[in-house]
Design brief:
Elements: E1 9-15, H1 21-30, E2 44-46, E3 57-61, H2 69-77, E4 81-87, H3 91-107, E5 114-119, H4 132-142, E6 146-151, H5 160-172, E7 179-180, E8 185-186, H6 188-201, E9 208-209, H7 211-222, H8 228-241, E10 246-247, E11 250-252, H9 253-265, H10 269-278, E12 304-306, H11 308-321, E13 327-333, H12 353-356, E14 362-366, E15 382-389, E16 393-394, H13 396-402, E17 409-413, H14 416-425, H15 429-433, E18 442-446, E19 467-468, H16 469-482, H17 484-493, E20 504-506, H18 510-516, E21 523-529, H19 536-543, E22 559-566, E23 572-579, H20 585-589, E24 600-606, H21 610-630, E25 636-641, H22 649-659, E26 665-666, H23 677-686, H24 696-739
Length: about 750
């Protein structure tokens, strides 16, 4: 089997005094029982060829004495696996193992596989013995970290090598990432990885592995073909226990997953791990780092973008998963239920209020016939409109399906909406209605990388919560800019099979773009500065097509909005707005390279508030000063928000004049008069040499540098003239001497 990338396995043996730890180690290493053995053995190494995986095992003997507890704790924390011993002829040592040793491992936070070993099997009193299963079953139920249990005799050399074989196997081919012992089922991440492998092997994309595809899979993973009789046998085993596992085309995904669950159940974990590792997965069932060829930035003012090849791939993926047609549905209003959140029409209900960010919970019910949806216990619905879902957008369920071959992500939440979302997906309306409103903490799995901050709610959504192609591509551009490695990994997870190096590109430095007075970037990040209640959040919401709200909530952390912007020349650029809370500006600017990632900055102020004007002027000067000191000055625009109110124009005009940038751009989000602001922002970013603010100090330094450069030029010219004159004089003198 294909082993993990580990070069050695470190096994620490611990247990009560006199339980046979040292004898076990010595017998394993020498394949004989020593007549005399020292109380504490030095580290013992089993050669790579000792076990089939070809990975050496280093065994650490330990002392259980009180004076050596510190050393013992250090060794346990460094272990890849722990062997806990008890003596079969001393029942008290087994009690102490469950009452002390296993608890001690948890106290020390030693989270590695544990092998429980009953030593001195030859000395056990067989008249009063219970089976190993009877003895260990309750202990293993309490301590899930126990990988396996085994009894052995060092004196009779019974099952001694097996002890460390199981320890090595538990490290190289662990159970925990693959299988949930409590539910007796494959874990979600394992299922998602195996699904990706199945899809990659299903070359004709008919949803089943035919005999040829099965053989190719077998050769790729195990370097040996299956005989026709073996293929028939595999299918028969699956079909007898799972009829849906095989159809007329071959082995289905369900059957493929069943086979791996069967391997694990029979203790053949190395089979599943060999398959996973052949397809590039590491011990955490994620793609290995060496497969993610992320291009590196050589300077902080460079960025990473998707290539045209990757964008075309994503367009194809979007089209493939946008497979729903026009579906009739009901739009209803529930006056009795708050905070219900579902994510698309694929669920039992969908809360439009989460899209509109205001109003009561509007619910959408898919329906095949034009009739009133049933009333559910605890819920009352008022039918408002009979409509149809629009095509051309990915619903949440379709996004989950798209990312169903990528690893899930886990997070904790105290949000009732999330729990209601999960309940609604399962159709559990009564459970939603009866959910407690008291704060609780829930453990939730994310199946789309965009279900969490900062991607959640960062892109434009359709009325029914779908995501259009433009928003889909914008989200990918955002993820690529922010986390290129994660973007590339997800591209590969969802089926990008070209050279990973062809998916991403590094842009030129913005400093170089300023000198060239142009840029080839397709994605721009805009920092949005401004005081509290200036209208920053409203600007971001308007960028995503969301309605204006008079209610105000102070922003305490960075928010993002991403969308594409059509330029006047007919090209599209992706614009990422990053809202910087007023209280976060100081922390941001404490990093000298903070503006390196910024392509353009806007400074928003409430045109009806004199203090807002003053504070924005201060922020503008702070950012301008930071840009001059760091060398990462950025084009900047002033935005006079809330133009529908009475304004104070003069104060900010003076500030704009002080830093030599353009006059404020007036707009009103409430009146939907945006004055082409997003096109203006992109235009400023595409001309990185213009609209860069300069402070008085900056202008003085610039003027000084110009004088120095001019002086150096004059000195250089003067020196050149002197050199030329001297050369001419020497030539004249030489000719004169030769004439004489």
């Amino acid at each position: 089997p294909m082993a993990s990338s580990r070069t050695t396995v470190r096994v620490v043996v611990a247990g009560d005094r006199g339980t046979g730890k040292s004898s076990l180690i010595a017998a394993a290493a020498s394949e004989s029982f020593p007549e005399y053995i020292q109380p504490l053995l030095p580290p013992t190494r089993l050669a790579p060829d000792f076990y089939p995986d070809g990975v050496p095992v280093v065994i650490i003997d330990t002392s259980s004495s009180l004076e050596n507890r510190g050393r013992l704790a250090e060794e346990l924390k460094r272990a890849d696996a722990v062997v806990l011993t008890y003596a079969c002829d001393q029942p008290a040592t087994l009690d102490h193992l469950s009452n002390f040793w296993l608890h001690e491992l948890r106290r020390l936070e030693v989270k590695v596989p544990v092998i429980v070993v009953g030593c001195k099997l030859d000395l056990r009193d067989e008249r009063h013995s219970l089976s190993l299963e009877q003895v260990m079953a309750p202990i293993m139920r309490q301590f899930r970290e126990i990988e396996t249990c085994i009894e052995c005799s060092a004196a009779n050399l019974v099952q001694v090598p097996e002890v460390f074989y199981y320890a090595q196997k538990a490290v190289l081919h662990p159970t925990a990432p693959l299988f949930d012992q409590e539910t007796q089922a494959l874990k979600p991440r394992c299922v998602r990885a195996l699904k990706r492998i199945f899809i990659l092997c299903d070359h004709d994309m008919d949803g089943a592995l035919n005999d040829t595809e099965l053989n190719e899979f077998q050769v790729k993973c195990f370097n040996a073909p299956l005989q026709p009789a073996e293929i028939v046998g595999v299918k028969r085993v699956v079909q007898e226990q799972l009829p849906d596992g095989v159809n007329e085309l071959g082995l289905t995904l369900t059957g493929f997953l069943f086979l791996h669950a069967l391997f694990i159940e029979k203790g053949r974990l190395e089979t599943t791990w060999t398959v996973l590792r052949k397809f590039g997965y590491d011990d955490d069932i994620k793609l290995r780092g060496d497969l993610l060829a992320v291009p590196s930035k050589k300077a902080p003012d460079q960025s990473v973008e998707l290539t045209g090849e990757a964008v075309e791939f994503l367009k194809g993926v979007f089209s493939l998963f946008d497979n729903d047609k026009m579906k009739p549905c009901y739009i209803a209003y529930s006056p009795t239920v708050d905070n219900i959140m579902a994510a698309s029409l694929g669920f039992a209900a969908f809360a439009l209020s989460d899209v509109l960010n205001e109003g009561p919970p509007w619910l959408v019910f898919p329906s095949k016939k034009k009739k009133t949806p049933p009333l559910y216990t605890g819920l009352q619905f008022l039918i408002v409109k009979y409509g149809a879902e629009q095509d051309g957008a990915l619903r949440h369920s379709e996004l989950e399906d798209l990312f169903s071959t990528a690893p899930e992500r886990q997070f904790l939440t105290d949000t009732l909406d999330i729990v209601a979302h999960v309940c609604l997906r399962k159709g559990s309306f009564e459970k939603v209605a009866n959910l407690s409103k008291e704060p609780s903490v829930f453990y939730v799995l994310n199946f789309s990388p965009w279900d969490e901050a900062p991607y959640k709610d960062a892109a434009e959504r359709t009325l029914l919560g779908g995501i259009s192609l433009n928003s889909f591509l914008s989200q990918w551009a955002f993820m690529t800019l922010r986390d290129p490695a994660r973007s590339l990994a997800n591209l590969i997870y969802i089926g990008y099979s070209c050279d990973p190096a062809s998916a991403l590109r590094v842009t030129s430095r913005r400093l170089a773009d300023r000198k060239k007075q142009q840029t080839d970037r397709n994605v721009f990040q805009c920092f949005v500065f401004g005081p509290k209640n200036a209208g920053k959040s409203a600007l971001l919401k308007s960028f995503l097509g969301r309605p204006f709200s008079d209610s105000y909530t102070s922003t305490t952390e960075d928010h993002y909005a991403v969308n594409d912007v059509d330029q006047l020349v007919g090209t599209k650029k992706t614009l990422i707005l990053r809202e910087i809370p007023e209280d976060g500006v100081k922390k941001l600017l404490s990093n000298k390279e903070s503006l390196a990632a910024c392509d353009v900055a806007v400074f928003v102020y409430d045109s009806s508030d004199e203090y807002s004007l003053k504070r924005t002027s201060e922020l503008l000067l702070e950012v301008a000063r930071q840009g001059e000191e760091s060398g990462f000055g950025v084009p900047s625009l002033l935005i006079a928000a809330k133009d529908d109110l009475n304004s104070y124009p003069m104060a900010i005009k003076d500030s704009a004049k002080d830093v030599r940038i353009g006059a404020p751009i007036h707009l009103s989000v409430k009146e939907r008069d945006l004055n082409s602001i997003f096109i203006r922002i992109v235009n400023a970013a595409t001309h990185p040499h213009l609209s860069v603010p300069e402070t008085e100090i900056g202008r003085t330094k610039k003027h000084y540098r110009q004088l120095v450069n001019r002086s150096l030029v004059l000195v250089s010219v003067g020196t050149a003239v002197a050199v030329v004159g001297l050369a001419a004089y020497r030539a004249y003198a030489a000719r004169k001497n030769s004439a004489n």
